[in-house]
TrEMBL record:
UniProt similarity note: Belongs to the heat shock protein 70 family.
GO MF annotations, alphabetized: ATP binding; ATP-dependent protein folding chaperone
Descriptive protein name: Heat shock 70 kDa protein 12A
Keyword ATP-binding: yes
A Pfam family it matches: HSP70
UniProt-listed InterPro entries: ATPase_NBD, Heat_shock_70_CS, Hsp_70_fam
Keyword list, A-Z: ATP-binding, Nucleotide-binding
């Protein structure tokens, strides 16, 4: 549950481990505002270009110990491919995608390294977070002298559309990486990316879309009950939320988070498909296996061209430098597809470059851009969103001039489209503010249905026979889903949101175990129904057996904005047990 940082914590450090790029930012807890937010030192890529984010790539040694992260991991892997292969180094990229759709993610879930070896997702992600943690500590120490991980409130960002199970998994991984611990859970906050951005909106003053406009603050942010849509488009995730400021400056959620797996990476995937079309899927497959690091270099080259503004120039040809090994492959295949497109669209230049017209480049963006626009259009038609007049566009992919133009063209007639100058760092900056003032968000719309298991007196014909059991001579039906909160309900956060009373099944029971579930079906009846995910459990003790079955346990769920805490309290003894289920 998001709680105010305790007094002895000195810094907030937000770690944004993205699917494609990562970074961190920090700020002394006592200082207010955005001016005191510091970023990591710039990272330097192969061409000496400095960037605020580094690729989310990890290189592990054969014994699974850490070797390098980010550009360094890429450079080492691409520069010493044979050594990496012989030495059994393991290279991981885009590994966070494993958490996107896996409802059953757990500590045993594995991720494939580029050589095909399977390693636990928990190890890969915790090692990456641990690297960013150590980097952050190093930088803060240069400014403040001695400081330890225990002096810090750690904020980890997660896409809002992730399943509750995946969000919980990130908390477990944080502990594994040495951020907080199960005994000290309040030292870690899990921040939903669009909510983190929302925390920043009041501090945003310069916008790409409205250069020189200082009135935005007055016209938009200072007006209570103005509904905003935050559209966060990263490497693989589109997260959309709608919030409003209340009279007292607090934030309430107007619509639950929606989104899908759309993001910048899908442009790269389209480029891969184009290469397959041009040079043969089978050949590409072999090439990737034979020259994995050259392949990585080719994709990095595409990545930098994809970010360029030349794409807007209709007459431009965009040159993508090819590794020599790739040129050899290309020369062997002599693709008929290339002839079909014609030299104005695609050609090989000087045996060194693949030259694509800006039109061809744009086509690589089209499917993902269309999906994003379609999602937003459908959403904005909903009656609950009729008051939305402002759309914030943020996230790394929102830095694409092509995407910006498309969104503005589509939506600027009906909406004010605001693109802050810090698009790609908005998440991490917002997460720092979220850490400093988590109480800014006061009301949320619950995106999933939550509940716990329970047993009730058996009613023949109503409950299935196979769920019948006997407790102290009374027939019961077990495995029922006791609804706590239904999808789309508005709840006030950091308050005891939903409570349910349980009695003990047997007079001699001294312990009672509650399991908590998220359900995609708001009307689910049993914990075995489809779409049910177990989130965790809480065990409470109830020692006063002399009261027999006449003992009540109060089970509550608190919504912390991002996470849920479950509490079971034995009313007679006062014994309490809490957990992030
Ligand atoms: N100027 C640009 N033009 C086009 N694409 C860009 C530009 N800048 C960044 N991107 C794309 O944005 C994506 C990275 O965005 P971001 O750093 O927000 O993602 P992430 O945090 O790794 O992903 P996620 O939030 O989905 O886990 C990459 O696909 C990158 O190619
Ligand atoms: Mg991100």
């Amino acid at each position: 549950m998001a709680q105010q940082a305790s007094d002895d914590l000195r810094f907030v450090v937000a770690i944004d481990l993205g699917t494609t790029y990562s970074c961190y930012a920090f700020s002394p807890i006592k200082d207010q505002g955005r001016d005191s937010i510091f970023m990591n030192r710039d990272w330097t890529n192969d061409d000496g270009v400095r960037t605020s984010k580094t690729p989310t790539c990890l290189l592990l040694k054969s014994d699974l110990s850490f070797d390098s992260f980010g550009y360094e991991a890429v450079q080492k892997y691409t520069g010493h491919q044979d050594k990496c292969r012989k030495g059994g180094y393991l290279f991981f990229q885009h590994f966070k995608m494993a958490l996107h759709s896996d409802e059953t993610i757990n500590t045993e879930t594995t991720i494939k390294a580029s050589n095909g070896q399977l390693v636990k997702a928990k190890t890969v992600i915790a090692t990456s977070i641990n690297f960013l943690k150590k980097e952050a500590l190093k930088v803060i120490r240069t400014q403040t002298g001695d400081i330890s991980a225990n002096d810090i409130l750690w904020v980890l960002t997660v896409p809002a559309i992730w399943t509750p199970r995946a969000k919980q998994f990130m908390r477990e991984v944080a502990y594994e990486a040495g951020l907080g611990s199960p005994d000290n859970p309040n030292q870690v906050l899990i921040a939903l990316e669009p909510e983190a951005i929302f925390c920043l909106t009041k501090d945003m003053s310069t916008f790409k879309s409205e250069p020189g406009c200082i009135s935005v603050k007055r016209q938009v942010f200072s007006q209570p009950n103005t509904h905003f849509m935050v559209v966060d488009i990263g490497g693989t995730t589109l997260d959309v939320t709608v919030h409003a400021f209340k009279e007292d400056g607090a934030i309430k959620e107007i619509h639950k988070v929606t989104g899908s797996h759309y993001g910048g990476i899908y442009v790269n995937q389209r480029f891969e498909s184009l290469l397959e079309e041009l040079f043969g899927a089978q050949e590409l497959q072999t090439y990737r296996k034979q020259f994995p690091s050259h392949w990585l270099r080719l994709m990095s080259e595409f990545e930098s061209k994809k970010r360029g503004e030349r794409i807007l120039d209709d007459t431009a040809m965009i040159n993508i430098r090819l590794p020599r090994s790739f040129v050899r492959l290309v020369n062997q295949t002599r693709s008929p597809a290339m002839a079909r497109y014609g030299e104005k669209e695609v050609k090989l230049e000087d045996e060194e470059y693949l030259s694509l017209s800006s039109g061809m480049m744009k086509k690589l963006f089209t499917p993902v851009m269309e999906s994003i626009k379609k999602h937003l259009k459908t959403l904005l038609k909903k009656p609950q969103l009729s008051e939305v007049k402002t759309i914030f566009l943020v996230g790394g992919f929102a830095d694409s001039v092509l995407l910006q133009n498309e969104i503005e063209r589509e939506f600027s007639k009906g909406f004010r489209v605001l693109i802050p100058n810090c698009v790609s760092l908005a998440v991490v900056h917002g997460a720092v503010i979220f850490g400093k003032e988590p109480s800014k968000i006061t009301e949320i719309v619950v995106g999933t249905t939550y509940g716990a298991n329970c047993a009730r007196d058996f009613i023949p014909g109503v409950y299935p026979e196979e769920k019948k059991f006997s407790a102290d001579g009374i027939e019961k039906c077990g495995g029922l889903f006791n609804l706590f909160v239904k999808q789309n309900a508005v709840v006030r956060i950091r308050e005891k949101t939903v409570t349910s009373k349980y009695t003990l099944l047997r007079a001699t029971d001294t312990e009672i175990n509650f399991s908590f579930y998220a359900s995609t079906n708001p009307d689910a009846k049993y914990i075995t129904d489809p779409g049910m995910t177990k989130l965790g459990s809480v065990m409470d003790t109830s020692p006063d057996t002399w009261r027999g079955k006449d003992r009540e346990i109060e089970v509550s769920m608190y919504f912390g904005g991002t996470e849920i805490t479950a509490t079971a309290r034995d009313i007679s003894s006062g014994n309490v047990c809490s957990n992030h289920p």
